[in-house]
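We emphasize that the prediction below concerns an isolated chain of 266 residues; any contacts that depend on oligomerization or on bound cofactors are therefore not represented. The input was used exactly as deposited, without trimming of termini.
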Amino acid sequence: MGFLQGKTAIITGGGFAALKDGSAGSIGYGIARAYAGEGANLVLTGRNVAKLEAAKEKLEAEFGIRVLSIQADVSAGSDNKAVVQNVIDKAMEEFGRIDVLVNNAQASASGVTLADHTTDQFDLAIYSGLYAAFYYMQACYPHLKETKGSVINFASGAGLFGNYGQSAYAAAKEGIRGMSRVAATEWGKDGINVNVVCPLAWTTALEKFQDEYPDAFEANVHMPPMGHYGDVEKEIGRVVVQLANPDFKFMSGETLTLEGGMGQRP
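Result of the prediction step, given as a token string:
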């Protein structure tokens, strides 16, 4: 039995996506596998219903846990607070508790320079990333307070290091980091720890980035000193699981770079 047996984790952007070679290419799905391996029931959200249903089918069959998949898209012009509250309401109806929130979902127009960015492209990154994390954190707060739960938010080396062609993405991710540090300060008294992960794994998004923006890809994406990109489950998901482990409860407000030696900073 894993340490999350009987507990519930919400993972945004948790659908299954396959790389060109057919292997799993979604960080959200890798995280979901890691949490399922510890016995957690899962609430998976995303924009693509087929990817969510594929994840649900695979996870329930392999791990014997329960998965609730909910189509949810935080975007400009939508009633985003209602969209997110619907997820939380359904999660509570199905499982009766929320122990972990993982804000992993993010869309962006990576590869477009700052001078060429449109407002719509900027909104895409800010709404899908920063606003989504904001609404999910607000809606989950009373439930996480009850369970003394954990929040794991996702940022990026794009913001830490100012990657070429990733202005909106970096802005969203650094906003998430700032908000996470404030939450760590404000929610510590409630027994909630909040941390941030900056991952580097080979994903379908990275494959698409390479195909569509080869110059920006070459400028930004380099082989880590460890000689490989992270595995979405073993090298990203397992760390995200441990951030919800009671042994790590005293760590809060921190940013972890999972980039195989590339994420070094003072």
